[in-house]
Amino acid sequence: MNPRAEKSATHFERKMKKLAIATAFGLLGAVAFGQANPISLSGYNQDCIANGTGTVAQTTTVTLDSYYDFYTQSYYGDGTGLPDSGSFLSSYDGTTNFQFANYSSNNVLLLFESGQGTDSGTLSLTTPDAYTNLQFLADGFNGGHSFNYTLNFADGSQTTGSLTANDNFDNSGPIAYYAFGRANAITNSEEYDGGPPYLFQYGVTLSQADSMKSLKSVTFTNNDTNGNGYDTVGIWAISGTVNQSVPEPAELAPFALGAIGLFARKRRK
């Protein structure tokens, strides 16, 4: 090959290498920030959603406050209540999808105030992954209550923060779902007025460093200490946006092999 042709080939290879790298990272980065979708979890400790047959007390394990629980749309059969599918699109941002845990098993992480019951609990991800943001579906009972969250990563590191769960009758909060009613566990009657109770959405944006790490679980703690025993916080679900710019090694292989093959073919010519 003459010097001019060899120089042209080298220049071509450099351009193709840059193009391959830009394309690979462009494709991955284009979906790094997207819709928040439900995260499969374990660790819920109470069933506070009446469903199926039987009284409210028979189909739940404990009341959310003094004597109320939530219920599904089919429980009273009048169209009010939480969606039978367990899934819904948040009214707060119109982009976050939430999914309740199985209505017939424990479906809420219910945290009592300190000294009155379980005040801390952990929800573990069925499949750990890296996230750019998390969305918590939560509410408070007998008032709004501060709660801490700790993000537990697979590498052993942790990040903590604090939020306040609005009272479930507070219409000034970031309402994700509303006008679904509540069930009286004493009288087995339905209470619905087209307004409260509400479920709220609280967002957490992960730092760039944290968004590159695999999230293993989230620990929550109710910070209330001066209530009457029913100053509870309910954590119902977590959704999140997976950081697609942190691919599995297998996902990088096609890009690497393609680039190597392209360069090798070019050099053989």
Structural commentary:
The protein starts with a helix and ends with a helix. Helix 1 (3-29) packs antiparallel against helix 4. Strand 3 (49-50), helix 2 (56-59) and strand 4 (68-71) form a beta-alpha-beta unit. The protein is of the alpha+beta class and 269 residues long. It is globular and about 50 Å long. Strands 1, 7, 9, 12, 15 and 17 form a six-stranded antiparallel sheet that branches. Strands 2-8-16-10-11 form a five-stranded antiparallel sheet, with no helix packed on it. A four-stranded mixed sheet has the order 3-4-13-14. It folds into two domains: 3-30 and 249-268; 37-242, C-terminal carbohydrate-binding module (Jelly Rolls). It has helices at residues 3-29, 56-59, 73-76, 249-268; strands at residues 37-38, 41-42, 49-50, 68-71, 87-89, 97-99, 109-111, 120-129, 131-140, 145-153, 158-165, 175-178, 182-184, 190-191, 198-205, 215-222, 233-242.
CATH homologous superfamily classification of the largest domain = C-terminal carbohydrate-binding module
Distance N to C terminus:
10 Å
- The portion of residues forming beta strands comes to 25-35%
Unreliable segments of 5+ consecutive residues? 3-33, 259-269
Mean pLDDT over the full residue set: 85
CATH class of the largest domain: Mainly Beta
SSE succession: HEEEHEHEEEEEEEEEEEEEH
How many distinct folded domains? 2
Shape: globular
Structural class: alpha+beta
Computed over alpha carbons, the radius of gyration is: 25 Å
Largest sheet: 6 strands, antiparallel
Tell me which CATH architecture of the largest domain applies here.
Answer: Sandwich
Helix content: 10-25%
Give the number of DSSP strands.
17
